[in-house]
Here is the input.
Amino acid sequence: MAANTDFSPKPIFSLAGVDRQMPPTGLIAPARYVQGPDLLDHLGRFLPLVPSARPAVYISAGGLRRHGEKLLAGLRAIQIEGQVEIFEGECSISEIERAAGSLRARNTPFDSLIAVGGGKCLDAGKCVAARLEIPVVICPTIASTDAPCSALSVIYTDEGIAHGGESFPDSPALVLVDSQLIADAPVRYLVAGMGDALATRYEARTCYRNPAGRAVIGGRPTIAAQAIAELCAQTVFDDGLAAAEANDRGEVDPALERVIEANTLLSGIGFESGGVTAAHAVAMGFTRLPVARANYLHGEMVAMGLLTQLALEQSPDECAQVARFCAEVGLPTHLAQLSLDAAADGPALQEAMAHSAATPLMDNEPFDVTPENTWAALLQADEIGRAATAAVGDQAYRRLHA
Ligand SMILES: [Zn+2]
Here is the structure.
């Protein structure tokens, strides 16, 4: 199962032989989704939903130190001895093949893979489970991306450059979100997840309004996915600041629960079945710049990608509105907040934007996307973002990036 190198995973719904005038609509979602405080302690109780009696656990060494004890105790409570495979840090083909080989060599008939961690560990876990042909259980320890609920993974090079995707016939069998783990994690992750979640509304809207737009799974977006994407961003706008404060205190409250659900479930279904376009194309371009990919999270790059998308779509008022919220919550609003400079990094940035413009994700925009108009949109977004930050202040950003 080789990764495509064009950013776009193979659509799950093939449109071959289907009437292009009236393409089908479709929606996929994880089979089970459970969210609440301290659920990881009781993981064993939820495994019958898969069902699974011989799971392998895929987790980073740091994750194992932090969460291993309660995770394995939760399994032992139902007489399951979890076997651990360490995630070595990058969602790359070499790591995926290594982990799949290591689990195969144990000659244990694993009947599920429980991936525990951040977006890259979860995405790599989906790829490993697909190779072993077993269901995947997803336990996010942060709410920084919408990776948990989808049936696809973004593949990176060993150096961390986004270069392709894999899609799977099955969505995760179970997504179990322990909201206390997320409240215990640094707030910057939750805020980055809000960047990814905000983009979901605008990307899905563009795909829905453009008759040629297609969801990530193939086919036209359903009105259900469109409504979920809308609710996703609205939840972040309404509850984002309160959720970040609760996260700061390490407390789970209703606002934090709602934003975790928006970042994880709503954003996951919204992007996969609603469609992805310029915000993610631009974010993937940023991963080509070493300073950006080494220092910023996916959702932070998506936030700047979203501002660029809104400029590209000639919605400067919406761009300013989103930029104000980003400044209030601490998401990047301009290039300097991704350690980039339009003048000093000009040639590399223009090359990155040319890559963004050429990705198939841009086919969902209802007009021709070129390196020139993408670059011009980035510069306009940078200007709008700087104005928003000047008005709101950059205290929130500085607090997260101290
Ligand atoms: Zn994303």
Observations:
- Strands lie at 25-26, 33-36, 55-60, 83-87, 112-117, 136-140, 152-156, 162-167, 174-178, 220-221.
- Confidence is low (pLDDT under 50) at residues 1-7.
- Residues 223-249 form the longest helix (27 residues).
- The chain is about 50% helix and 10% strand.
